[in-house]
Amino acid sequence: MLNARIVRLVSMTSVVAWAAPALAQSVQAGAGPRDEVKLEEIVVTAQKRSERLQNVPIAISAITGESLERRRIQTTQDLQFTVPSLVYNLQGGYALAFLRGVGSELAIPNAESSVATYVDGAYVSDSQGTVASLLGVERIEVLAGPQGTLWGRNAVGGAINTITLTPTQTTRITGKATYGNYDRREVSGSVSGGLADNLAIGIYFAHMRRDTFMKRQVPTFPTGVQPDREMSKGFRVKAVYIPTDWLTLTGTYEQTRQRSFENDAFRQTRPHGAGEVVGGVQDPIGKYIISNDAAAFANVDQEYATLREEIDLGWARILGISNWRNMKARTQIDIDGSSAPLIKVGTPASLSEQWSQELQLISPDESPVKWVVGLYYFDQDAGYDPVHQKSDAGLLGPGIEQVDNYAFVDTRSYAVFGQATVPLTSRVNLTVGARYSKDRKKFHAHDVYYAPGSADNCDAEWADPSCGILAMPNLVHPNSRKTWDNFSPKITVDYKIGGTLLYATFSTAYKSGAYNIGTPGNPGPVDPEKLTAYEAGSKSDFLDGRLRINTAGYFYKFKDLQVQTTAFGSATGTTTLLNAAKAEMYGFELNGELAVTRELVLNGGLSLEHTKYTRFPNFAATVPGSTTDIGDVNVTIDATGNRLPRAPRHVITAGAVYQTQIAGGDFIANVNLYRNGGYFWHPSNVERQKAYTLVNASVEYEIPRTPVSISLWANNLTNTHYVNTNLPLAFFGTLQIDAPPRMYGVTLKFDISR
């Protein structure tokens, strides 16, 4: 009884996904002739109930835990190599996710992503908390397109949901150890099973550390503590308790910790940036090499607790998702990107604490009309405590060595939503849904100024209000409060003919406004983004289930896009936020999978997209300066007609999985190719990521009559250089962060179930 309820509960924890055919990598086994070959069936809950993927009229994708392991998908950022229309970058530890060209460059607390992230259905608001190592994962699901109805919290571009492993009554013990280049060392494992007839519990843990692939051109160790290794670790405890036949409770508690140098290892790309002009290293710095006088690091600590409450009323189900999440990040960058002691910026405490409660009332599976209604509440306090800027070169003003900006935003959001699917005929269904949201944000901030030398009198590297000498009275910025509301409808018609599902959808979505707390003297806020989408697609199975082809075409109208740019006249790299006027984008996606034999499965994906600003006059752009300029220069341009940032014209994925038996043990070979056609980094369309190709591969052998397997793997096999992010800072030039080079290693694992 408990196992059946837990299996049902696991299926409810799913959210949504996209392009599953390119990701399901096993041939269905079971009864039937030896030569019967079929692709694996995938079940998702994109519409709050368990449904066969091919029957859901949404662009979806599901990546199983097994596939994540074989592809060495270790963080949410790595998902971009399996989802063709996803570009996922990092900037100062913040996640910048773009799906179908829709995303946000705002790397500050309270500015939530346009691609919403969930863990077991619970929303993760702060984008510093969304780039997480994958710990004990059942699968990850990605939903492309605006999610203004069922998953509507700021999900203008789509949603990513991580579904964690749920314990059952079956005892299971797993372990894994990896050694790789850069002295990579990983260990992970889990213990789960039943403690009583109505209680199952699981404990999951993981730890990774390796040497950094970045190097320093200046051998002098920088001011402050800079890690020479990358590290992540965490643990999760998850329990399922079923006190009665009509009530199921699932509780989760997790802690994670990440320590990174690479996430903030900005290197200078301009030979005439301010640091070089005043005596720093003169030659352009090569890839994987930085030349900073201050330490660079991004350290993120998180913990969260989630309680899922499922009540079976017979005529309907109630599902509650109660969530609390706390995040603290400590970061620092040498913002001039040089060996000259000009300026550094750090956040000893970037804080975010959130609470959310969602209630859903869901129709029973046997109901001819499928419906769900719900309420949602969200509360977050986020901000800097504080942001430090320190300059020994007088860039902060006469008589000022350090400025501390304390800024916080309190967010409260309320929503009511619903959706119903009505069968018009035996083949035609009509789905209608809508969400009404109301968001309120409160901003408050103040600045503290310190005189030269005062920070040196403190025990800590950074001064704080309890030490140092004030250069001038504290500046208290005016409090601000803003409220927005939105109504987002959705209409879908689907038609089933043979083994093909055809569908067409009209939908809208909205992303709430945000305050510019990184520059509290110019806080804004910027207005919400709004997107209207038209989409049509097909999902088809051919050759008796051996071939699966899914397609989707879409057209988006986007307005009030939130854009971040360097402030005019800024000598400290401060930013300003603004709304782009209007944009359009259209694209086509195709994903296919073919079971050639029982042993060989091929998959491939294609994403084509065209984007442009249809109206964006007076954009404050940063463009390369001449050799007589210091750094880059600020100019006002008309960006109308330019392409949107981080939206490649094409992306191609291809892969193969071959599985056979050798000497009585299973042998599995896996290879995947990712080709990105390149994209512009900013609305100015000046800085560009060139086209690049990545190849990942692995081979695994399961030792006969044992629960042990050994695998060899390599990511970025051809050692291709590409960039993780690009940041223009005018006076200081343009900085960028390099993406990882080739990584390889060997993994030994075991899995015992009884």
What is the secondary structure topology, with strand pairs?
Elements: H1 2-12, E1 43-44, E2 51-52, E3 60-64, H2 65-70, E4 86-91, E5 94-99, E6 102-103, E7 115-119, E8 122-124, E9 137-144, E10 158-164, E11 172-180, E12 184-196, E13 199-211, E14 215-216, E15 229-244, E16 247-260, E17 267-268, H3 274-277, E18 289-290, E19 297-312, E20 317-333, E21 344-362, E22 370-390, E23 402-423, E24 428-450, E25 470-497, E26 500-511, E27 529-542, E28 547-566, E29 575-595, E30 600-615, E31 619-623, E32 633-637, E33 650-662, E34 665-676, E35 679-680, E36 688-689, E37 692-702, E38 708-715, E39 723-728, E40 734-738, E41 743-753
Parallel strand pairs: 7-10, 14-18
Antiparallel strand pairs: 1-2, 3-9, 4-5, 5-6, 7-8, 9-10, 11-12, 11-41, 12-13, 13-15, 15-16, 16-19, 17-40, 19-20, 20-21, 21-22, 22-23, 23-24, 24-25, 25-26, 26-27, 27-28, 28-29, 29-30, 30-33, 31-32, 33-34, 34-37, 35-36, 37-38, 38-41, 39-40
Task: Please provide a written account of the structure.
The protein has three helices and 41 strands. The strands form eight sheets. The chain has a 22-stranded antiparallel barrel. A five-stranded mixed sheet has the order 3-9-10-7-8. 3% of the residues lie in helices and 56% in strands. The chain has 754 residues and is mainly beta. It is globular, with a radius of gyration of 26 Å. Mean pLDDT is 87; it is low at 1-26, 28-34 and 459-464. It has one domain: TonB-dependent receptor, beta-barrel domain (Maltoporin, Chain A). The longest helix is centred in the first third of the chain and has 11 residues, at 2-12.
